[in-house]
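Hi Prof. W.,

I finally got the Protein kinase domain-containing protein prediction working! I wasn't sure whether to trim anything, so I left the full sequence exactly as given:
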Amino acid sequence: NIDHDYICRAGERISSPEAGAAYEVVSLLGRGTFGQVFRCRSSAGGQLAALKVIKHEAYCDGLAAQAEEEIAVLQRLGGPASRDDGNIVRMLDSFTHHGHVCIAFEMLGPDLLAVLERDGNPGMPLAFIRSVAQQLLAALQRLRTACVIHGDLKPENVLLVPERAALGGLGQREPHIKLIDFGTAQVGGRVAENEDVIIQTLPYRAPEVLLGLSYTCAVDMWSFGCICVELVLGRPLFPHGGSEHDIVRNTLELLGPIPQHMLQAGRNTTRFFYRPPPPSALGKVSAKTTGWLAHIMAFCRRRRALPSPGQLFRNLLGALVRRREASPASSAREEAFRLKSVRSKLDEINGSGITSLEHAISLLRYEISWTRAMPRRLRPEVLQTQRAGRLHLLRFLLRCLQTNPDERWVPSEASDHAFVRGGAPACKQPLLRRKWSFRGQ
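And this is what came out:
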């Protein structure tokens, strides 16, 4: 076919010669730019599996190579297929069938986006968010230890385990979740920016990626913070449908400025920012200084031995300009970047974004068990506990969403926060932290 997808029907058996197993197609789960995913039943024990079938390698060589990289990453992260002790999807098998690379995964339930939509998008209870955060941080710590960058963390790629995701049970307090889709994952401590490789879905894309800087596992922590905000508020931190410029503008409005050193080094900075021209040096010369120079010039006319007035003026003015250029404050002013004024795509789709993260969290309804309620329905001690929980949550989110990746929390630091642990902070968290490094704490 024109899309180079594998053509099959329900009941067809796709064989894995290496494992000596076969997968009987039950139904189509979904399709994408990579190919298709089928619900299958394995001949080994009759268990259900999700079979990812990549487009034909003869026509889509890049996709086939990307699938092989995904297999290598999953092998790097996973242990035996029989183990189920983590929060990363298990790969059961991988093989090539009639020119199509196939990857078999364990069968999982709905994703977090489906959970939000099924619940009417009011935002999930804090106990649910805390459980998801704990498990995602465990998965991200595992990736960081293995020097793997996921590169596409979003609600659609976080799935619930089936036995805890039965219909009517999506509102469980402690869901079991797993991270999927390592098709854009990369291995390495720091990855150089490559204009031919686009990582992260736009509303979850980190500032360093938008600016065209090299990046680390810190980009996944940014996406993690965006997911947590979406679970809390029931809507994304950065609205879908906007442009990269919209994301940058919203980042500045919600989370503060991007450090100057990042703007100066970014390959894409000029897409979003401009540097205003420095003010005229002559315009900085005060009236008092001009009068003083006039007296000097008059004196020079009477004393022909001294330099000509024009030469003296140029020498004095040059000294003032050099002094001004050497001033750190004036240099910082000249190097400051300003955001370009561009029409927002969100205006065209009538999109309404979050204007203040702190204000949005303060407007959340209070909880009685799994229902929402007004504060007057709660006992004072319960109300105080929930207010404290919101304060912990806000501080937690802001540390995960630092625009400077060197100040963004690593998974182990985030796991120790009061919101994730559900208690008081174990220690005072530093305002600034060391640069991202792998394998260490």
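The chain has two domains: 12-106, 110-277+352-416. Does that look reasonable to you?

Thanks,
D.
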